[in-house]
């Protein structure tokens, strides 16, 4: 089972109406070598992004809202290149979109 997974027979689903839901949010801060002088700033940025998303979930926000909050937090942090993809369309618009899955 992956670290932070909440799957299994004892896991509550949002449909079950559990008020005791314990959400998990994982933030990936990038990959590759990092110098020691930057490592702590990156860690703080990742913790901040995860905290923003987690608070949205705990306050009853949707998973999409939580992901968006975490991503925007990374995008607003100059330590990360989140939201600065290599390909841009006309007028500096990124082709990246968040598309929630509807059942």
Automatic annotation (TrEMBL):
<feature type="region of interest" description="Disordered">
    <location>
        <begin position="1"/>
        <end position="30"/>
    </location>
</feature>
<dbReference type="InterPro" id="IPR029055">
    <property type="entry name" value="Ntn_hydrolases_N"/>
</dbReference>
<protein>
    <submittedName>
        <fullName>Isoaspartyl peptidase/L-asparaginase-like</fullName>
    </submittedName>
</protein>
<dbReference type="GO" id="GO:0005737">
    <property type="term" value="C:cytoplasm"/>
</dbReference>
<dbReference type="GO" id="GO:0016787">
    <property type="term" value="F:hydrolase activity"/>
</dbReference>
<comment type="similarity">
    <text>Belongs to the Ntn-hydrolase family.</text>
</comment>
<dbReference type="Pfam" id="PF01112">
    <property type="entry name" value="Asparaginase_2"/>
</dbReference>
<dbReference type="GO" id="GO:0033345">
    <property type="term" value="P:L-asparagine catabolic process via L-aspartate"/>
</dbReference>
<dbReference type="InterPro" id="IPR000246">
    <property type="entry name" value="Peptidase_T2"/>
</dbReference>
């Amino acid at each position: 089972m992956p670290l932070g997974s909440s799957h299994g027979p004892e896991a509550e689903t949002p449909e079950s109406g559990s008020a005791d839901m314990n959400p998990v949010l994982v933030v990936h801060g990038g990959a590759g070598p990092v110098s020691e002088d930057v490592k702590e700033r990156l860690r703080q940025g990742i913790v901040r992004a995860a905290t923003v998303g987690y608070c949205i979930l705990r306050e009853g926000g949707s998973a999409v809202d939580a992901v968006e909050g975490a991503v925007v937090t990374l995008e607003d942090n100059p330590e990360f290149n989140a939201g600065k993809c290599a390909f841009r369309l006309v007028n500096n618009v990124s082709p990246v979109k968040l598309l929630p899955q509807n059942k």
